[in-house]
Amino acid sequence: MRIVLLGAPGSGKGTQSQKLQAKYGVPQISSGDLLRDAVARGTELGLKAKAAMDAGQLVSDEIVLGLIRDRLSRSDAANGFILDGFPRNIEQARALENLLREIGQPLDAVLLLDVRRETLVKRLAGRRVCPKCGTVYNVHSMPAGTTTCAKDGTQLEQRPDDKEDVIAKRLEVYAEQTQPLVEHYSRLGLLRVVAGEGELDEVFERMEAAALAKPVPEGAITVRRARTGSKGASTKRARATAKKAVRQTVGKAVAKKKTAAKKTAGKKTSGKKTIAKKKAVGAQKTRKKSAPKKAVKTKKSPAGHAKRAAAAKRTAARRASSRSRVAPARRSAGVARSKAKTAKSSTKARTKQARAKK
């Protein structure tokens, strides 16, 4: 495991690198710690660094690289290392690449801890450090009233650069310096962006997965430059690049665990839904069978009513016409029959009379 940690002040690089160091047995190498140790021991490089700092100058990259080379030559760095605080610019990144190539220990990954600005300010303003062992604490997570180190009882201190009036400037400088590094390592396929907010163990799990992920081929990641000129533009560029990179370099270990958990939960939920659906369908069929059938009413249209009325009128008219024609004929026939009967009766009467006279 040979990695570089990038992240704004207060992003948690020190805490997470300590957890990686404890688990994998590789040293955490901080450029600041190297300088302080070299100055305290009075080494050749330490004396040069002290002279530069006393003169109000920045310690040269040559001195810092010399300290890193010396540190990596120790036996505990044979299986890897975690670089924190270096490089800070493109020139230092290229110089570091040359050094690591010379000693045969090229980088495996560059981890960028992505944390919101408001969270960074809160963490930095509340940070306290043990001057003896270097353990970092935060007043927002410590028990109320705690002012000493839990390891050695030393009084905790606040770093001068953690004062609130200094924090804003530090974050601006970081954004300006780090954006070129984000683009540089993205092009090399080494960048891994890790969400730095949440529980410590959750962040560590993401860090570990990103550190062990396979390198991305060079040129596979395209980094777009954001517009400059507006306040906070550097920070926005870094975040935009980080978000794009993380979509392309998701930690496989964490992803597999989440996918497996989702599949298991999905199967259980699907089985329950299927059973519930079958029960609902069965109940619906039962209700349909037991429900009484409703009579189907045929709606008669207005046009049908009109047709039937017209047909009835025509039938009534035909019947009336037929009766008007038949009635006179029947009356005539009746009169004729009546006259014939009368004539017949008269004939019979005269015949009887004639016979009587004889």
Descriptive account of the structure:
There is one protein chain. The chain is an alpha/beta fold. Among the domains are: 169 residues, P-loop containing nucleotide triphosphate hydrolases (Rossmann fold, 3-Layer(aba) Sandwich); 49 residues. It has eleven helices and seven strands. Strand 5 and strand 6 form a beta hairpin. Helix 2 crosses helix 4. The longest helix is centred in the C-terminal third of the chain and has 56 residues. The radius of gyration is 52 Å and the shape is rod-shaped. The termini are far apart.
Q: What is the fold-level CATH name, i.e. the topology of the domain at 2-27 and 74-117 and 164-262?
A: Rossmann fold
Distance between the termini: 170 Å
Total helix count?
Answer: 11
Q: Which range does the strand content fall in?
A: 5-15%
Named at the architecture level, the CATH assignment of the domain at 2-27 and 74-117 and 164-262 is 3-Layer(aba) Sandwich
- Pattern of helices and strands: EHEHHHEHEHEEHEHHHH
Overall, the morphology is rod-shaped
Write down the overall mean pLDDT: 77
Strand order of the largest sheet: 2-3-1-4-7
**Main sheet properties:** 5 strands, parallel
CATH superfamily of the domain at 2-27 and 74-117 and 164-262: P-loop containing nucleotide triphosphate hydrolases
Report the helical percentage: 55-70%
Derived from helix and strand composition plus strand pairing, the structural class reads alpha/beta
Q: Could you list the spans in which at least 5 consecutive residues all have pLDDT below 50?
A: 218-235, 241-254
> What is Rg?
52 Å
- CATH top level label of the domain at 2-27 and 74-117 and 164-262: Alpha Beta
Topology, number of strands = 7
